[in-house]
Write a structure and sequence with these properties.
heterodimer; A: Immunoglobulin-like; 2 domains; 7-stranded mixed β-sheet; B: mainly alpha; Four Helix Bundle (Hemerythrin (Met), subunit A)
Chain lengths: 175, 504
């Protein structure tokens, strides 16, 4: 009985055949998944980036400002719009409660997209792709990206970042 | 001894009266927390259901923070403390090690729970920082202090349980090994000790930082330490829930595991593997190596999942064997059709197993994959997963055992038995729809913890999600109303029983 001490010495008893079979199937599946995990990482091409650098938030803000001054082509809703050349380093800054700048990219070209925060944690979520990464102050997270479809994309903050969290939407334009 | 005990006429257990009193008080407090959490849940779900969109953002953040704490924290842990005292003192026919410590623990937990609610309600702009309380968002010291007091109280209660096991062993109140249910409770207690210590490691420095006497700490390091508390704290619930599954299988149909070794090994697997599996929260974080992510999320997680797979076989097997012994042998499934479905504890048990495994468990394994996590992280699919596990699984199991706690511990005859038959279905189906709706909306990228995905608070970059996402949110909303009704019905039955139930 589950509520009384076992009758026999439990670690010496034999597990019934049905449970051994079930265990074997479940274990085999666990091992398949265990092997798939590194294999998928090595042979697949959809891994989260691991390229990270330490950066002071103030330093990252300065880097973003320099980047904006260099490639600014306009403004939308008070947020600068930049058009960096293909292959360049692109800086996106998350801060309470906006993403800066709006970024214009060229379809089929590759960019190094830097993500970091000026203050607290933010979440980088691209709609409609549904791609999600953490944005953490003190860390410069680099994603190497090649946009394959033209269109307007939205960047939604999906980590709670303060009472104005819902305001935090940005934009990436691919032409 | 002697005077402090009574003998239960149904189970034959020797009931330590001071322990019984503590069980009652912790269980009642848990149900109050459940009611408060459920009211907040209704407000939150009616805000996320965009057609209704009830609350202003600041109120939404306030109530989503407190919904998290009242449900994940206070309802479940107060109830678990009651379970631990029951498993320790009563199931082993012994006395609770220290009723005094039990009351101190209770007082600390109560102050912590009240403090958390008050600090967030009074000052949501600063203190509504969600269950995760990520630095460098800074709340007032009162908030962190409340949470820490609650955790310290819970830790003392766990120690009280462990000391009770020691007394039972020393005074030989049972022979041989611990009963399976107590073994499961012990697994939960061991996980709780390590988990709560990590919780202290995350929140104590944060408290000092909020008082400006300690330096700020690295936001990523906090996340790593926090998740050694955050996810494993839910594994306490898993272990406690499975222990309750075995207890319910025994109480409802007289079933017991067909192999003590099999079931106990599965509990040992929980202790060994489940804690380090929490790296899946950091799969799309910068600064964490791939090898570390893969090791923790594949090796550790799959072995913990294996343990759940073992229980998922053993508990239904216990029911089937018991039913077949009663002669329900026609066809493959007579044992199931002829099960005591009119007993709300039985339907709660079955629904708990199904919702936990199929909605919570499977979604968890999928979301915890390195690559797939890119599509799930911080979307509504994540709460979709844990509403399957914690609300559908743990909460339903605890509701199911309550229908036995009322007559056996509170010694009151259940009021509203005919309504109680439907209660687990109402709650179970409701919460299943919540889980499915959230997971569906999450696939379209709908963020969690977000107050306004229609106008984005008036942002110039506002946009609309795929219309299908709003349909999923409606599924979640309707499920939320059903689940709320189920939870309220549960509370009403429990309260009516305590007040009006015939004394047994």
């Amino acid at each position: 009985m589950s509520v009384t001490p076992p009758q026999r010495v439990w670690w010496k008893e034999k597990v019934p055949r049905e449970e051994r079979l079930w265990f074997s199937i479940a274990l085999a599946w666990a091992i398949v998944m265990f092997i798939m995990m590194p294999l998928w990482h090595i042979y697949g091409s959809q891994n989260p980036s691991t390229e990270t650098y330490k950066v002071e938030p103030e330093e990252y803000v300065t880097l973003t400002q320099q980047f904006i001054e260099r490639y600014k082509v306009g403004e939308e809703n008070g947020v600068p719009v930049v058009e960096p050349p293909p292959g360049s380093d692109v800086y996106l800054l998350g801060k309470q409660f906006s993403w800066e700048p709006v970024i214009k990219l060229k379809k089929g070209e590759t960019y190094r997209l830097h993500l970091s925060s000026a203050d607290v944690l933010h979440g980088f979520s691209v709609y409609p792709m549904n791609i999600n990464f953490m944005v953490i102050p003190g860390y410069d997270y680099v994603l190497t990206i090649t946009p394959t479809e033209a269109g307007e994309y939205r960047v939604v903050c999906n980590e709670y970042c303060g009472p104005g969290h819902q305001l935090m939407v940005g934009k990436i334009i691919v032409e | 001894m002697g005077d402090d005990f009574r003998t239960c006429p149904v189970t034959g257990f020797k009931v330590h009266l001071p322990a019984e009193k503590l069980i009652k008080v912790n269980a009642v407090t848990a149900v109050v927390a459940l009611l408060v959490g459920a009211i907040m849940a209704l407000l939150v779900v009616l805000t996320r259901w965009e057609t209704v969109h009830l609350l202003r953002p600041i109120d939404f953040y306030k109530f989503v923070t407190l919904h998290g704490w009242n449900m994940l924290g206070f309802w479940i842990i107060f109830f678990e403390v009651a379970v631990l005292y029951f498993a320790g003192a009563i199931m082993l026919n012994t006395r609770l090690a220290s009723p005094k410590l039990g009351w101190v623990a209770y007082a600390l937990m109560l102050i912590g729970a009240l403090g958390t609610n008050i600090t967030v309600l009074m000052n949501p702009t600063k203190n509504a920082i969600m269950f995760t309380s990520y630095v460098p968002l800074k709340a007032t010291p009162g908030y962190y202090l409340s949470v820490i007091l609650f955790a310290v109280g819970a830790l003392l209660a766990v120690f009280n349980f462990l000391a009770t096991l020691y007394i039972a062993k020393k005074e030989k109140t049972y022979r041989g090994s611990l009963p399976l249910v107590v073994f499961g409770a012990l697994a939960a207690a061991i996980i709780a000790v390590s988990t709560l210590l990590f919780g202290a490691a995350a929140l104590v420095p944060t408290l000092f930082w909020s008082m400006d006497i300690a330096p700020t700490w690295d936001a990523l390091t906090y996340r790593i330490v926090f998740w050694a508390f955050g996810h494993p704290s839910q594994q306490i619930n898993v272990a406690a829930m499975v222990a309750i599954w075995y207890l319910l299988a025994y109480l409802t149909v007289g079933g017991t595991t067909i192999s003590e070794k099999f079931s106990r090994l599965a509990f040992v697997f929980y202790i060994l593997f489940i804690n380090i599996a929490s790296a899946h929260h950091l799969l799309v974080d910068p600064g964490v190596s791939t090898a570390w992510k893969i090791w923790n999320t594949s090796y550790a997680m799959y072995l913990a999942v294996l343990a759940s797979m073992m229980h998922a076989f053993a508990v239904p097997a216990a029911i089937e064997v018991a039913q077949r012994k009663k002669g329900f042998n026609r066809g493959l499934f007579e044992w199931l059709w002829k099960a005591p479905w009119k007993n709300p504890s039985f339907s709660a048990l079955i629904l708990s197993i199904i919702v936990f495994g199929f909605l919570g468990g499977i979604s968890g394994v999928i979301q915890g994959t390195e690559q797939l996590n890119i599509r799930f992280h911080n979307t509504l699919a994540i709460p979709g997963h844990f509403h399957g596990t914690v609300a559908g699984g743990t909460t339903l199991a605890f509701m199911g055992i309550t229908y036995y706690v009322l007559p056996l511990i509170f010694r009151r005859e259940l009021v509203g038995k005919s309504l109680a038959v439907y209660q687990p279905w109402l709650f179970g189906i409701g919460i299943a729809l919540v889980s499915i709706g959230m997971q569906g909306a999450g696939l379209y990228g709908v963020p969690r913890r977000h107050a306004d995905i229609t106008s984005f608070g008036g942002s110039g970059f506002a946009f609309e999600y795929d219309p299908t996402a709003y349909l999923w949110l409606a599924v979640m909303g309707i499920g939320g109303i059903l689940a709320f009704a189920g939870a309220v019905l549960f509370v009403l039955i429990a309260v009516a029983t305590l007040i009006k139930g015939r004394r047994l």
